[in-house]
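Input (structure):
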């Protein structure tokens, strides 16, 4: 009887042991499955966050570019205002008013110019070494012509027009400076726009100067004719 009981207990223990091992394996599988599911959900959440962050950065990039464009527009507006004030001060109309009126208008113009100069607007352009060298070269070529304006106004105007023709996509009215064009192509896009604007300003100033000179010569001629008529 005792041996039968011992055999029965041993048999029950042998049956319980596989069942216990099987339960442990199931628990491990459940835990492992939970970890996998947790990793899967965590990965999806990270992807969502990354997508949202990327979308925010894309929107900020648009705002940054709009901000730079607005600052660049203000920079151009400052240049235009200074040019307009300068043109008024040097206009023919200023020469044909009384001394007192001219002095008062010049005081107003100087005040406006001073207030305009108090506004500092600067948009820095990111350049590599080659673009920096190209910008310096292009600036030097323009400066060389500007420094010789008083020596030969007509020749300087023709040379500036050839430089301007190298900067525009329109069909130029005259010859193009091929060397200058190759230099400008090596500049950054923003620098190319600034170079073109500078040439436009120089050509406008030259045109205004020519008009002033022509008007002055016409007035001198009229005075001489009047004097000759009186002598006759």
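Output (sequence):
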């Amino acid at each position: 009887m005792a041996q039968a009981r011992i055999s029965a207990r041993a048999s029950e223990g042998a049956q319980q042991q596989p069942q216990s091992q099987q339960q442990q394996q199931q628990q491990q599988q459940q835990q492992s499955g939970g970890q996998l599911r947790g990793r899967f959900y965590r990965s999806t959440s990270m992807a969502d966050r990354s997508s949202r962050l990327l979308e925010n950065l894309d929107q900020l990039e648009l705002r940054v570019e709009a901000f730079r464009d607005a600052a660049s527009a203000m920079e151009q507006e400052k240049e235009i205002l200074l040019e307009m004030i300068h043109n008024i001060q040097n206009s023919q109309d200023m020469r044909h008013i009384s001394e007192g009126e001219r002095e008062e208008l010049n005081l107003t113009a100087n005040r406006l110019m001073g207030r305009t100069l108090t506004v500092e607007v600067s948009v820095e352009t990111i350049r590599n070494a080659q673009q920096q060298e190209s910008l310096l070269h292009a600036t030097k070529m323009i400066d060389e012509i500007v420094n010789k304006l008083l020596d030969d106004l007509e020749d300087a105007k023709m040379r500036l027009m050839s430089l301007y023709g190298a900067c525009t996509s329109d069909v130029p009215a005259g010859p193009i400076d091929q060397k200058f064009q190759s230099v400008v192509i090596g500049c950054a896009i923003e620098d190319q726009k600034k170079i073109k604007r500078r040439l436009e300003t120089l050509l406008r100033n030259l045109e205004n100067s020519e008009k002033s000179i022509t008007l002055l010569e016409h007035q001198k001629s009229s005075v001489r004719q009047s004097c000759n008529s009186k002598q006759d």
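Notes: The mean pLDDT is 79. The two ends are 167 Å apart (CA to CA).
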